[in-house]
Amino acid sequence: MHLATPEPLSSPAFFARPRRSQKVRPGRREEPAGRPAEGALAGRSALGRVGRGWAIVVAALATFLFHLSARLATPDPWSYDEYYHLGVARELVHHFPLRAFPWTPFSILADHYADKEILFHLLLMPFAGLPIATAGTLGVALGQIFLVAAFAWTLWHLRVPFAPGLVLGLAALGPLFAYRISMCRPHVFMVGFSLLVLGFLLGGERRGWRGWKTGLPLFLVAALFGVTHTAGWVSIAFALIYAAAGWLAVGEERRFLGVPLAWTAGGWLAGQILHPNFPENFRLLWLQNAVVPFQSAGGGSAALAAVAGAELTRPSLALLLEQWPAFLAPLFALYLLLRDRELRTRSTVTVEILALAFLAAGSLAFQRLLEVGAPLGLLALALVTAERRAADRPSRGGWGPWIAVLVLGIGAVWTFTLVRERGFGSSYPQEMARWLGEHGEKGARVFTAQWGDSAPLLYFAPQLQSLVALDPTFFLVKDPALFNQYVEIALGRNPDPVPAIRQRFGARYITVWRAPVYGALAAQLGHDPRARLLYRDSYYLIWELSSP
Asked: Distance between alpha carbon 353 and the CA centroid of its chain, in Å?
């Protein structure tokens, strides 16, 4: 691999603008007195560029191994969604594309299915049939390689100084970031694609956005982003902010850059039109990006709030304080931008705005957005540092690098310690789902008190039906009244749950997670002669209902 760049990584060619007091004459280049001829420096310059490139590669490998080590220590799935994604990937091997989802008949996607992460599932297909721990770990490794490589390439492409150290900074972004990217889920690719989009957006300035060679890579990345994650449309938002950021920059022409916005929007739209589930994918995009966040934020039913997951909720103060490493880079970059107006370029302003926006939204509304804001904050600091160096700003003594190393070390230790202490990774639902896979009658339906149990059932017992997979909002949207009844039963509020489960839901089996929240339902079933206990382990109970 040859990673040589046209100019040294510390070159101001990309970031620097002529100072107002500096007169630049076209066609004239002044050489400092005593400087060796360019030919004499060519060999050393090329070796220096290659050395820097390989330093980035080594740093990226070390960062990848750092994050992967946590998953290797506990290889079982870290999220119920992993069972769903690997199960869908396995089904795609035999049925491509999926146009219905008969496993969850109470979901709005049952009859009009659209795979919102189809490229992600295609990437999982080669190993989806392996044991769940192996397949999940390989999926995690694939996502982490993509994310780390995207960040490293973006720094190299933008010729950012100190790039190897900044790549290592990905290991010190806090426990929530490390936890989230250690799951076999498409959001890891969302973070990586976000970095790639910014890399191509900011890198386009070198060509002045002239010619198709500048816009085509952005077009392709936006298209791939849109078919890998349902939030791929954010690439358009990135381009829009970049197009307008010149109005906040200093020393740049204040104009709206419509060309990169057009390339980005065109790429995303092309990807959606070529989607094998077109046009159903547009309906799903609205549900996932508008309806689900609105409902999860408290704008919907109380029943949904009672069973919804935590990632689309506001983080607690304790959890937020644990993420202090994620806020250091963007806040320091903001301080430098406010202190020195000359550092405010279209690039630095764009990335800083995006980093702060994601971190603010993750802190105040949806905690899953913190994982996007953390690496964007690190990229913002990288760009501001590069701009500062290109502008020849004086450094405050020789303590800066040592302070950076100290902060990096403390952040990495903090991240590593908390993730390992929490002991993520669980096999709780696997034995229950395996048992039903071996003993459940084909075509029978399972009432899952914990709606997330539908995912391991899809993986281990695909001959059965359950209620709703991936998000309970898809159940709520299809039949709000029935969803409310489901929640009442699951939480033990229905005085006679057996007839309702059998008649309204057509279920033969009931799975109950042995958690306190489902204790009331377990007690009701345990005293009802119409329910026969078939299976028990430390975490789950399975009942079979008698025929009506």
From this structure: 19
With b for 16 or more beta-carbon neighbours within 10 A and e for fewer, the 501-535 pattern comes to bbeebebbbbbbbeeeebeebbebbeebebbeeeb
10-residue averages of pLDDT along the chain (548 residues): 39 39 37 43 53 89 96 92 95 92 91 92 96 96 98 94 93 94 95 97 82 90 96 96 89 83 96 95 87 67 73 84 95 94 93 97 91 96 91 64 81 89 78 95 95 94 91 88 94 94 94 94 95 95 87
3-class SS string, 74-85: CCCCCCCHHHHH
How far apart CA 7 and CA 370 sit, in angstroms, is 34
CA–CA gap between residue 411 and residue 208 (Å, rounded): 38
Joined together, the tokens standing for residue 96 give 């491509």
Q: What is the pLDDT, as a whole number, of residue 103?
A: 94
Residues 6 or more apart whose CB falls under 8 angstroms from that of 520 comprise 491, 492, 493
Q: Which amino acid makes up residue 437?
A: G
Residue 171's contacts (CB-CB under 8 Å, 6 or more residues apart) are: 62, 63, 66, 67, 178, 408, 411, 412, 415, 416
- Residue ranges covered by each domain of the chain: 46-73+114-422, 430-545
Helix (H, G, I), strand (E, B) or coil at 21: coil
DSSP string, 349-365: HHHHHHHHHHHHHHHHT
Task: State whether the Cα torsion 146-148-375-391 is positive or negative.
Answer: negative
Three-state SS at 409 = helix
Other residues' Cβ atoms within 10 Å of the Cβ of residue 317: 9
| CA 471 centroid distance within chain | 17
179: enclosing H helix or E strand? helix 175-180
CA 240/CA 263 separation, integer angstroms:
11
Residue found by looking up tokens 């060619």 in the block:
13
Half-sphere exposure of 404 (CA within 13 A, CB side): 18
Q: Specify the pLDDT at position 109.
A: 87
Cα separation, 281 vs 115, whole angstroms: 7
- Spatial CA neighbour of 128 closest among 95, 101, 88: 88
Sign of the alpha-carbon torsion through 358, 362, 363, 364? positive
What's the DSSP call for residue 297?
I
446 phi, psi to nearest 5 deg: -115, 130
Alpha carbon distance 46, 48 (integer Å): 5
What is the model's pLDDT at position 10? 37
Exposure string for 441-454, b = 16+ CB within 10 A, e = fewer: eeebbbbbbbbbbb
